[in-house]
Specification:
This protein is of the alpha+beta class. 42% of the residues lie in helices and 25% in strands. A hairpin with a 2-residue loop joins β2 (107-112) and β3 (115-121).
Length: 146
Amino acid sequence: MEGFRVLYWYWWCLALVLAALEMFIPGAALLWIGGAAGIVGVMALVFDIGLVTELVLFGVLAVLAWFLSRLLARRDPDDAQSGTLNRRGEQYLGQVLTLEEAIVNGYGRARVADGIWRVAGAADLPQGSRVRVTGVDGAILRVEGA
C-alpha cells in the first residue's frame, strides 16, 4: 500500500455526502465531520501526503470536530434561555397591552409588539383599555383589566 493516495476530491465528495446526510440525521455532528473531510481534501491537494497520513488526519479532525460540535450545542443561548419555542404567547405573560378591539362576549383583540392577537377576558372591556396577560390558551391570550 506504499505510495497509494486517495485523491483530494474523494475527500470533498465524502464531505458533501456527510453534509447531505445531515438533512436526514439532524444534530450538526455529521456536518462538522464533513468539514473535517473537506479539510483533509485541501491538505491532500496542497501537500503530498499518503493514505495513512490522510486517514489519521481525518480521524483526529473528525474527533475534534465532533467534540467542538457538542461543546457549541451545549452553549446555544437560544435553547438554554428560551424554553418557549413553539409557545410564543408565553413570552407575553405579565405584560400590559392595549385593546385594539373591545372585549365583547369574552373575546377581543390586542396589539402585541407589531401584531394583533386575539384575547379572552372574563369581563367586557372597551377598545383602548389596558389589559394584563395572565395566561395563554393556544393562540389566544387570557387577559384581565390592568
